[in-house]
């Protein structure tokens, strides 16, 4: 077929597709026009691709091929690049996806917990018996500053003399979320980075906590950390766990190439990181406005702190479990009837 | 990427297939993205230097923001310091994510350098990919100055750093050539239909590319390059050769009015009012490269 006949025959189709594409890219739809209904788009797009292949094969002119290529590209990006937004995605994430993922990847969560919490606890206990051990781990100036921050005579706990709440909020957001992201990102270095950052932060936090406890500012310090400790520490643990998942995919990719194994591990790891970031962020607010306040008595602070830990445990252990009970009606199984699967389909 | 001049084909009498193969063995960065419809898209991946340039520009933009807003916030005392730290956090982590999602996959620095972030299947970048590549940036930055990221880019065929590998994204050059419109003076330079040579797609594209880049070169260089196109010139020399190529390019892209006879043998353009670039200029993926002709099924 000659080129001009080809263009005559199919030109109207291409023009319609171009108009549809413009609307997808954000042009205002003109009220009187009827655009291609969505269910016809796949067939139209395949036709367009076929026309482009024909035009190339028959060596039609560059202008025509350019035009068709532009339409095919636009169609490819509009169709395959469409973002599907799910209503209630946030609710489903909080109530189902996030706790399920944490339970599913419990091994990495356990390893990250040991690295962060275990090292912290170990060092706190060690410093009670060997007070000078703190000076091995952290510099003297830093310990002195931290000790002064938690001095009972300090009007605002956990802060330097003239700091304000909002400033501490900014500092906590900047500092703690960065630590979480570092623990996550380090995982891509075959887990080494994640392990390093988790252990490092555990050691430093343990040294400072142990030193302050040993010096005697027990109520100020533990009253301060009680409120936000659950969210912050476990948030960093989860970020590190996500990093360890990435690293483990690189270390033991199974039957896939390492890059493909990494890409397969990313969706779960990133969802855990979303949740962890939210937890650390929330902890920063609690730390800035609740923990540093001297108004509540320390017993209330302890109670709130323990309450947060218990709530968190309940959340991650019980929330999002499907009901695995037997169905109300016992339907006799036939050979061909498929059994419905009890596990829910995770929203992507 | 410059297509090799048609002079190669005429002087050495290479068959067309050999001519096309040479393009793939050149040191260049087009990558072929297959689509389910059987069409292959071509994207040009961007290397570390271009990306470093874009990053520096972004860094300077952020520095300017800090330096302008910083003193204003400092005047607000400790409250202002807190706001400054929050802004620091948002700009360090949220700036790239925000622009990649809401500004068609390019931060201002990338936009200035004509770069864009896409998934490696050619689709625009999504939330998860953007979040992934920008949080793993913390690992790419180690040990200092994007050391690990640079090593990863140099070891990877698509110049992907660690964040790109995990997220399945790639940074590409936005195609400039399809936006360049060769200027043609219609009255002075229309091409007589019988004098239009029968060129393959690759050769037509080479002529169009030449004309679209004319402004970059000095006059002498223009003439020097035009003299290589022996196959299309009717013994013109010097400035006439350049004008002849400009007229031909105008003919191939349909910008010059032409009497409507079309030659079935060589498939020349008929007069189309609609230029292929109209309306879809926002698509950055370069599809016009001659390398697409080499894909199986497309000769």
Task: Tell me what the structure shows.
The complex is a heterodimer of chains A (348) and B (299). Helix content of chain A is 71%, strand content 0%. Chain A is mainly α. In chain A, helix 1 (3-24) crosses helix 2, helix 4 (89-104) crosses helix 11 (258-291) and helix 8 (165-185) runs antiparallel to helix 11. The two termini of chain A are 47 Å apart. Chain B has 299 residues and is mainly alpha-helical. In chain B, helix 3 packs antiparallel against helix 4 and helix 10 (201-212) crosses helix 12. The radius of gyration of chain B is 24 Å and the shape is elongated. Chain B starts with 6 loop residues before the first helix and ends in a 47-residue tail after the last helix. Residues 1-25, 177-182, 184-188 and 256-299 of chain B have low confidence and may be disordered. At the A-B interface, helix 1, helix 2, helix 3, helix 8 and helix 11 of A face helix 4, helix 6, helix 7, helix 9 and helix 10 of B.
Topology record:
The complex is a heterodimer of chains A (348) and B (299).
Chain A: H1 3-24, H2 41-57, H3 62-80, H4 89-104, H5 106-129, H6 133-137, H7 140-149, H8 165-185, H9 192-215, H10 218-251, H11 258-291, H12 298-318
Helix pairs in contact in A: 1-2, 1-3, 2-3, 4-11, 4-12, 5-9, 5-10, 8-9, 8-10, 8-11, 9-10, 10-11, 10-12
Chain B: H1 7-12, H2 16-25, E1 30-34, E2 40-44, H3 48-74, H4 77-102, H5 108-112, E3 115-119, H6 127-135, H7 137-140, H8 147-155, H9 162-167, E4 169-173, H10 201-212, H11 219-226, H12 238-252
Helix pairs in contact in B: 3-4, 4-6, 10-12, 11-12
Identify the notable features of this structure and list them briefly.
heterodimer, A: 348 residues, mainly alpha, 0% strand, B: 299 residues, two-stranded antiparallel ribbon
């Amino acid at each position: 077929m000659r080129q001009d006949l080809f263009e005559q025959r199919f030109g109207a189709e291409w023009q319609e597709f171009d108009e549809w594409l413009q609307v997808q890219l954000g042009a205002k739809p003109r009220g009187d026009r009827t655009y291609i209904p969505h269910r016809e788009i796949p067939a139209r797009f395949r036709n367009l691709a076929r026309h482009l292949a024909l035009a190339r094969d028959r060596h039609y002119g560059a202008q025509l091929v350019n035009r068709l290529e532009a339409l095919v590209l636009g169609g490819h990006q509009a169709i395959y690049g469409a973002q599907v937004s799910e209503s209630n995605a946030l609710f489903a994430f909080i109530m189902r996806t996030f706790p399920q993922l944490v339970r599913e990847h419990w091994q990495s969560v356990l390893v990250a917990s040991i690295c962060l919490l275990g090292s912290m606890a170990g060092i706190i206990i060690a410093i009670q018996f060997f007070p000078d051990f703190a000076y091995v781990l952290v510099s003297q100036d830093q310990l002195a500053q931290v000790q002064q921050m938690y001095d009972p005579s300090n009007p605002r706990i956990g802060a330097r003399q003239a700091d304000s709440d909002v400033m501490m909020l900014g500092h906590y957001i900047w500092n703690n979320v960065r630590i979480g992201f570092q623990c996550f990102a380090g995982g891509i270095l075959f887990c080494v980075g994640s392990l390093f950052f988790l252990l490092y932060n555990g050691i430093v936090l343990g040294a400072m906590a142990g030193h302050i406890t040993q010096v005697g500012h027990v109520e100020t310090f533990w009253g301060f950390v009680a409120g936000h400790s659950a969210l912050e520490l476990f948030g960093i643990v989860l970020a590190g766990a996500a990093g360890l998942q990435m690293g483990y995919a690189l270390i033991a990719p199974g039957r896939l190439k390492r890059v493909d194994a990494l890409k397969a591990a990313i969706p779960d790891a990133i969802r855990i990181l979303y949740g962890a970031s939210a937890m650390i962020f929330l902890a920063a607010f609690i730390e800035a406005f609740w923990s540093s306040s001297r108004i509540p008595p320390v017993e209330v602070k302890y109670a709130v702190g323990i309450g947060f830990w218990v709530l968190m445990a309940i959340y991650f252990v019980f929330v999002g479990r499907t009901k695995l009970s037997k169905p109300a009606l016992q339907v006799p199984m036939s050979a061909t009837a498929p059994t419905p699967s009890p596990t829910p389909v995770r929203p992507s | 990427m410059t297509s090799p001049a048609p002079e190669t084909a005429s002087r050495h009498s290479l068959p067309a297939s050999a001519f096309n193969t040479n393009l793939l063995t050149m040191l260049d960065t087009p990558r072929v993205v297959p689509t389910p419809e059987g069409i292959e898209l071509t994207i040009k991946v961007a290397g570390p230097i271009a990306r470093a340039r874009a990053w520096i520009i972004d860094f300077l933009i952020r520095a300017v923001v800090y330096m302008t807003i910083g003193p204003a916030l400092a005047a607000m005392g400790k409250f202002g310091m807190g706001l400054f730290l929050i802004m620091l956090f948002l700009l360090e982590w949220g700036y790239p994510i925000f622009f990649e999602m809401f500004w068609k996959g390019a931060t201002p620095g990338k936009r200035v350098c004509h770069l864009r972030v896409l998934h490696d299947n050619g689709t625009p970048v999504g939330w998860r990919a953007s979040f992934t590549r920008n949080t793993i940036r913390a690992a790419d930055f180690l040990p200092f100055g994007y050391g690990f990221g640079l090593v990863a880019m140099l070891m990877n065929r698509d110049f992907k750093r660690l964040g790109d590998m995990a997220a399945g994204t790639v940074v590409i050059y936005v195609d400039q050539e399809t936006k360049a419109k060769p200027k043609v003076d219609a009255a002075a330079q229309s091409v007589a239909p019988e004098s239009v040579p029968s060129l393959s797609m690759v050769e037509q594209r080479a002529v169009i590319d030449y004309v679209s880049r004319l402004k970059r070169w000095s006059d002498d260089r223009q003439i020097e390059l035009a003299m290589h196109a022996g196959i299309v010139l009717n013994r013109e020399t010097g400035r006439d050769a350049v004008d002849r190529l400009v007229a031909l390019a105008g003919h191939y892209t349909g910008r010059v009015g032409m009497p409507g006879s079309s030659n079935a043998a060589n498939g020349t353009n008929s007069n189309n009012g609609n230029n292929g670039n109209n309306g879809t200029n926002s698509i950055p993926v370069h599809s016009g490269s001659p390398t697409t002709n080499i894909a199986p099924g497309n000769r």
